[in-house]
Amino acid sequence: MSHEIECEQILLVQADWDGELSAAESAAVHSHRRDCEACARAYATLELTRSAMRKVPPFAPPHSLTRKLPTLNRYGRSSRTWISGIAIGLAASAVAFVALRPDGSQTAGMLVDSRVRAAQSSSHLLDVVSTNQHVVKPWFDGRLPYSPPVKDLAEQGFPLLGARIDVIKGQPVGVLVYQAGRHQVDLFASPMHGSIDAISKGHERGFNLIQWTTQDAMLTAVSDLQQQELEKFAEHWRAAP
Prior knowledge:
CATH architecture of the largest domain: 2-Layer Sandwich
Distance between the termini: 62 Å
Radius of gyration: 21 Å
Strand order of the largest sheet: 1-2-3-4-7-6-5
Helix content: 40-55%
CATH class of the largest domain: Alpha Beta
Strand content: 15-25%
Largest sheet: 7 strands, antiparallel
CATH topology of the largest domain: Phosphorylase Kinase, domain 1
Number of helices: 10
Structural class: alpha+beta
Shape: globular
């Protein structure tokens, strides 16, 4: 028995959740989802899938079972990891949509894509141009459903240039832009349970990334600065009032 798709854009919803759409396409799907109950329900189901996968506890197989997996051990793979993978798959299959949770490398790729797109167009690099944190912070009011933390690091050698709003995984995210000598640092500020997955540190296509959290937000700095210099930026940011 066949079933008609409730909305022809549901597949785009899944593509958006997987991070496969451009920023413009993602923004269009996000806008559509606000008015489409079927697509909103589909997106919520995908989020439930990710939540279920994150809650699967590690599983240590009994010794009697690991002895029966010599082929895996021969190639240096842990049978515990193999069993945990099966458990995750079973948990995900219990949800209507079966989808893979985006990993850190995919998230890093999306943030670098955002950084590169912004740099290609001076009109999009900054939506608001100001070195004053007391101008930039209220600019976000009414444009985002949360208030990104804004700090001025001019005395530490990283003056604030302004900010913009970008779309990551279908959700609007505030981006603070700082000058770092001849380089720039894009600081993505997402709510703690927002659209940016935890990646800690990383390197993607010539860009370094470093991530930390505050009480209310997750901050991810992206720059072509050397990793050591980017870590200094993060240290100064955390220490600033």
